[in-house]
Amino acid sequence: MRYTPYSSFLKKYFDVKVQKLPLDVGATCPVRDGRLSRRGCSFCNAVSFSPNVCLHGKEVKEQLLRNIRFFERKTSGHEVCYLAYFQSGTNTYAPLPTMASLIEAALMVDGVKGVVLATRPDCLSEEWLAYLQLLADKTFVMIELGVESVSNEVLDRVGRGHHVEDSERAISLLHERNIPVCLHFILGLPGDSRESMLSQADFANRNHAEVIKLHQLQILRGSIMAEEYKHFPQKFHLFGMEEYVSLLADYLERLGPSTAVERFVSQSPAGQLIAPRWGVKNDQVTLALQKELEKRNSIQGSFHASMSSKISH
Predict the structure, then answer these.
(1) pLDDT tens digit sequence for 133-175
(2) Residue of 41, 190, 159, 60 lying closest to 112 (CA atoms)
(3) pTM for the whole thing?
(4) Strand residue runs (E) in 137-289
(5) First and final C-alpha spacing in the chain
């Protein structure tokens, strides 16, 4: 394998197979509830934003048990533990007492050995940070941060409501508490140049990110971008698969080998996706990337290592 997989990161914490179990507790975010905006990010179709879907520990338990049954065939024959993945919305934007009870309920489910919380860089209050530190003292905790772009101009353009500096601050505050982070990036946002996209790897290196997730820009039904794309398609550059794989290879060469990659590509439901439609599954993109790196005789961090060597000299 020519890149550092997510499994290698998990092995630092667990000696058995790990399966993440997605949870939706109806968390909203400040660009939807009016604190910053009501429009939402322009790439988001908000399908998963359904406030009050789950307000009780019983419902969290039911979601987890249903997902455990779903993954049983995949994990059959393996000793396995689970991570409760609070995936939808901005989970640390919710009131702490409400979320803390749901997190505690998740940890009471048999086999659940930790939690992963998806959130925004600007939604980590001192109260939340203190709670996360206490939680991390007794179980595995990881935060997934939606950084999306390292260009403030692009972040403003897509209505994120936060800036790169917020991401750097959030990562630093979490690392001060020994909480690992996974950074989410989108490749292909309007206004993001190729060099700006590749500099996401430099950002991850500089901030010592433990894990990253990469997503190609997808135009989803019901999003602001869907309407923009309908009237002004020339404003968007949507990757073909071969071009995207080439970009990924360049990206990986810049990404230090200590950062694991959990995902290279998104696969939205066919009913939601407008473009691009590649007609392949995620593992086919990963396989194509492996072949591209083999063709280059390259690995993750090769460019990063050569640049570091030049700087040191």
Answers:
(1) 999 999 999 999 999 999 999 999 999 999 999 999 999 999 9
(2) 60
(3) 0.94
(4) 140-148, 181-187, 211-216, 219-220, 260-263, 273-275
(5) 30
Nearby residues of 103 by Cβ (< 8 Å), 6 or more positions away: 84, 86, 115, 135
SS3 98: helix
Q: Answer yes or no: are the C-beta atoms of 174 and 208 closer than 8 Å.
A: no
d(CA 49, CA 52): 9
Taking a C-beta distance cutoff of 8 angstroms, is the pair 259, 253 a contact?
A: no
pLDDT digits (tens, 9 = 90+) for 251-269: 999 999 999 999 999 989 9
- Tokens found for residue 17: 């197979």
The dihedrals phi and psi of 175, each to the nearest 5 degrees, come to -65, -30
Q: How far apart are CA 49 and CA 134, in angstroms?
A: 28
Residue 49 confidence (pLDDT): 44
Token digits of residue 149: 């772009």
**CA 278 → CA 100, 247, 248, 265, 285, distances in Å?**
40, 16, 16, 11, 10
Task: Report residue 185 as tokens.
Answer: 């990036």
- φ/ψ region of 256 (left if φ > 0, alpha if ψ in -120 to 50, else beta) reads beta
Name the DSSP letter for residue 69: H
Range picked from 68-72, 93-97, 144-148 for highest mean pLDDT? 144-148
The pLDDT of residue 310: 57
Closest Cα partner for 162 from 30, 27, 28?
30
β-sheet bridge partners, residue 85: 22, 116
